[in-house]
Amino acid sequence: MTDKTILVIGTYDTKDDELGYLAGVIRDQGGRVVTMDVSVLGDPSKPCDFSKHDVAEEGGSSIKAAIDSGNENTAMQIMGQGAALLTARLHREGKIDAMIVLGGTMGTDLALDVCSALPLGVPKYIVSTVSFSPLIPAERLAADTQMILWAGGLYGLNSVCKASLSQAAGAVLGAARAVEPMNQSKPLIGMMSLGKTALRYMVPLKPALEERGFEVAVFHATGMGGRAFESLAAQGAFACVFDFCTQELGNHIQGSNISAGADRLTNAGANGTPQIVAPGCYDLVDVVGWKPIDDKWANHMKHAHNRLLTSIVLQAAETQQIARAHCEQLATAKGPVTMILPEKGLGEWDREGADLHNAEGLAAFLNEIEKSLPANVSAQRIPHHINDAGFAEKALEVFDAWCADGTVKTA
Predict the structure, then answer these.
(1) Listing from the earlier edge strand, what are the strands of the sheet with 284-288?
(2) Tens-place pLDDT, residues 78-99
(3) Which residue, among 377, 383, 388, has the nearest Cα to 341 in the 3D structure?
(4) pTM, 2 dp
(5) Domains of the chain (ranges, CATH numbers)
């Protein structure tokens, strides 16, 4: 029985055998296959459903232009743009249910563009020799991209390579069959947090928002969680955001690998999505726990969360820099923004008497926020900690007012 249609993308001039094997496994499992060639110089052994010329022309260019550029990077970007546009169109027209791209660094670069062109819930797989590599920046990963390491896949088929490719074929077809589309019957709230150890407001807020008829998705602010949040915000997926852990912005500014990208705190605003913002864990910079800690943090308080993650506590002057960055990002918002500023702390470890209490840093941060606040953002100080009931009550007060006046769409 044939059911789901999988788009198989790659450079068929150099990886014809591998792509053919991948497609064969999908067909053997009952799936249909559509092929797309993103080669530039060579040609496949037999025609693909969408040729390299189709791909280049979809992006408003040509194979001749790619070749004449004399630059493989420029050429592959031409193909990446065309492949992304063509893939998105095929999905809109109902001709594909999922996609999988095979490649090394060149193919992976292209694959990231293609994945970003498809909405959440469309299975998107990258089989790459550089899967999970630090070469891949967080901001280029679509919210639900799946990656599989292409072991033994540099040149030609072998038993090691086939083990990777056959798993990938089963994964993408299985995902296409099993995926449950997003339920859009209820408006969606996007909320950022850092887990129940440091931040706990989602415990009272999630059921309260659900009682009001909203669905709530909570994202983990560890770089990739913020990337998924921003990706969905860019698609206009949220009726409102409760962006209560903005720590990834500080990570990015301080050069941490645990970054959600330079556009953190901007995509909801770019779509005019209403934003309630609280800078949870603003003073923590997370670094990779198993690597030596940079000497610049020698005189800072630290917290080893586990063997993967260590948090550095920023000092007063550094928190002022982070405050200004919050204001700069939010200044671009086209929709309403309210900041809630708890005076008793913005993370459980920052309570008075706790190990990472940072009274000087908090005072400097809050004062700088108010000093730098852009005209489009309102701010409300409250005499509570972010994990106190009073914080959740204030957030709901702002939200309920927006629902009542139509700022937040309730249906």
Answers:
(1) 284-288, 309-313, 302-304
(2) 999 999 999 999 999 999 999 9
(3) 383
(4) 0.85
(5) 5-178 (3.40.50.12020), 188-405 (3.40.50.12030)
